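lol forgot to send this yesterday, sorry. struct tokens for the thing we talked abt
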């Protein structure tokens, strides 16, 4: 299965990607996470991307397409991918189509998470992550089981993304509306778009995505009992 998850910042793309990885045996490719790793390592890409990300703008198509091309060639992508945060511009969508064609990969569906602005602000305001393993949480909607301790790795260190501040979020939302939403007609023309209500609780959104994928001819894995 190869799918794209589209949605504004805070829509739940990362959260749903993790659920889908398990259910469909496909690999999440989160370009935001990849860029943050480049920034943390101080690589040339990271040095170029840092200021752009902090300003809530989009990193250049060139860098993103190159990063994605290399990432998709790795063996862990052989069983399919869930693209989380890519493509974010029309040129990226076009480059992806060419890349898939070249490598014989078939795009099954483009899942669009729809939410209103107030919900997004609330999502982003409460978002935090484990500093050690990157597990994602929300102050109200997905707290750790034990206060101050990561469920996954036991770490007691957590981080907020620097670009989750209110003024940068406004600019990221503008970037979504101006540069990312134009990819929707591109995929609508190919009959691939499946719209899902992203405002519901996590498990409900996951069930809606599963239903949408079924309509696109993609079945979840049988869970062994
Ligand atoms: P969110 O989860 O809030 O949607 P991401 O973690 O996906 O945000 O992305 C964080 C930032 O990384 C973006 O604001 C942008 O600066 C950069 N970025 C991520 N993916 C792309 C992309 N495909 N094209 C350009 N910039 C990107
Ligand atoms: P994105 O990757 O699209 O930026 P995330 O998956 O990081 O979004 O979700 C943003 C925040 O909202 C996180 O703190 C996450 O725990 C929380 N969240 C995700 N999905 C839901 C949901 N359906 N209901 C409530 N909170 C959610
Ligand atoms: Zn952790």
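and heres what i got for the seq, position by position
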């Amino acid at each position: 299965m190869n799918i794209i998850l589209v949605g504004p910042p805070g829509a739940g793309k990362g959260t749903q990607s993790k659920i889908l990885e398990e259910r469909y045996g496909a690999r999440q490719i989160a370009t935001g996470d990849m860029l943050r790793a480049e920034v943390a390592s101080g690589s040339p890409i990271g040095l170029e991307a840092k200021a752009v990300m902090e300003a809530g703008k989009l990193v250049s198509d060139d860098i993103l397409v190159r990063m994605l091309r290399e990432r998709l060639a790795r063996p862990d992508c052989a069983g399919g991918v869930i693209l989380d945060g890519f493509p974010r511009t029309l040129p990226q969508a076009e480059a992806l189509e060419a890349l898939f064609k070249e490598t014989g990969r078939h795009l099954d569906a483009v899942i669009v998470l729809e939410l209103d602005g107030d919900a997004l602000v609330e999502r982003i305001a409460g978002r935090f992550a484990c500093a050690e393993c990157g597990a994602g949480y929300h102050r109200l909607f997905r707290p750790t089981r034990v206060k101050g301790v990561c469920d996954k790795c036991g770490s007691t260190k957590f981080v907020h993304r620097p670009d989750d501040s209110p003024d940068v979020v406004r600019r990221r939302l503008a970037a979504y509306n101006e540069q990312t939403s134009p990819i929707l007609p591109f995929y609508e023309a190919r009959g691939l778009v499946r719209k899902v209500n992203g405002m519901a609780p996590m498990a409900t959104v996951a069930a809606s995505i599963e239903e949408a994928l079924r309509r696109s001819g993609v079945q979840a894995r049988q869970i062994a009992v």
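The two ends are 23 Å apart (CA to CA). anyway ping me if u want another try
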